[in-house]
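Researcher: Last one for today. Full complex below.
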Amino acid sequence: MIEFRGVTKQYPDGTLAIEHVDIVIQPRTITVLVGSSGSGKTTLLRMINRMVDPTSGQVLVDGTDVATVDPVRLRRSIGYVMQNGGLLPHRRIVDNVATVPLLRGVAKSAARARSLELLDTVGLDRGLADKYPRQLSGGQQQRVGVARALAADPNILLMDEPFGAVDPIVRLELQTELRRLQSALDKTVVFVTHDIDEAFALADQMVILRTGGIVAQIGTPAEVLAHPADDFVASFIGADRGQRRLRLQPRDPASGRIVVVDSAGRPAGLIEDDHASIGDGASPDVKAS
Amino acid sequence: MNWLISNFDLVVGLTVNHIRLSVVPIIVGFVVAVPLARIAVTGRTARAVIITSTSLLYTIPSLPLFVILPAIIGTKVLSDINLIVALSIYAVAIMVRAAADAFTSVPVDVKQASLAMGYSRWQQFWRVEFPLAGPVLLAGMRVVSVSTIALVSVGVLIGSQNLGYLFTNGKQRNILEEVATGIVASLLIALVFDLILVLLGRLLLPWNRKNGSRSAQADSVRLPITVGDVG
Ligand SMILES: Nc1ncnc2c1ncn2[C@@H]1O[C@H](COP(=O)(O)OP(=O)(O)OP(=O)(O)O)[C@@H](O)[C@H]1O
Ligand SMILES: [Mg+2]
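Model: Here's the assembly. Have a good evening.
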């Protein structure tokens, strides 16, 4: 469990990046921090592994204030994925993935074997192991970044706009992959994005931040959709423009099924029969499509 | 070829001495400049102070420097040490700026990532920053190498025995072949040193090969004569 208790961060130049934030992140869930640029998402994320220290307040991991833990040791126990992979250009893929185990003193051959397994885990061909990062595509580098973050088998995975630099198709693929990995590996994932659709696609819990590092709303995607806390949230998730509104079309006479269309009239999905009887409005699982 | 054949031993002796006099300043330049440059890139003030002062060193004319060094460091007037110290100063002057560029060229992303992985500061320097600065450091060393080998010749004016002797002596005695021998021998040394550096780069920076940006890296290395520009 990760807990922010009354956390404030003011950078030395006076910028107030985070203002009195309280968040509880349950283990083995995906929490998405979402907000526009400069709203303090990265700052918040980096306070978990002490790349940034709060000005006041506490960050607790499993009940321990991280301020009392040696930052280097702490970071080796938490996976971190960056936007552009952040791979070391001078190390081969296999060594990049093995970075943290090697830092922790695992024997080279064991670390290498584990690296190769992790390439399988994230869906990469082992043939890439001896290449350098610049020989890989953006999407592949991103997968290596995920493999590297998993290498020390951390309980916590921090991801800062990890899929921001890849094209939409690869991005969808990586999102699906992340959800699969998360349920298979049981990690606590904290995921930063400024893409609200990505947030809806991944989150168990959403934390919506507004400029100045203030939490606008915390809740499940369904809660946020159903009850936006204020106009800012409503506008941020596109509810005020009707973007999130889905409509049911009349039951198709031939198949007897009900098609859901979005605000522009494009089909968004089908209603399962047992849900169709509920009738009006759309349930959260319909919205996911 | 008559002159060369009858003076072959002299030429070999001068060449060996020339190499000896070049190697030390080149190495000192690297060893002193790298930590200075690493400190220089930590902040604006550090950068301004270190880059400006080392660049200023380069503007000291060589002859006066040779002459005042004995007074400052207490060596004998005709000692080769004066030459080596002076050339080391120039090497540092060139290399500090190149090395500062080299450390600046290391992507911020990668440094952040290595910190996030749990590298300590020390490990981050040795295993990430230093190797990634390698290509630009190498480009700087190639400039330092050529410049040092050329400057050694000036040392004959304070009595150093090196290939520069062939220029002055050949000129006085009007033996064109002697002057030409001096030039060719210095060029050969410079070429061999450059080749060694390039091979070292191949060996130590295998990840950098087939990298199209090599000329861009060389561009970033300049002689530090524009003192006003402290970046
Ligand atoms: N090292 C720093 N020094 C001073 N101010 C900073 C620093 N890092 C971030 N800030 C400021 O703090 C605020 C929050 O920055 P942060 O990087 O956390 O935002 P973000 O939500 O991650 O933005 P983005 O989506 O653009 O990545 C911004 O106003 C930013 O300019
Ligand atoms: Mg950010």
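The pocket of magnesium ion (ligand 2) is lined by residues A 41-42, 160 (CB under 6 Å). Chain A has two domains: 2-241, 246-289.
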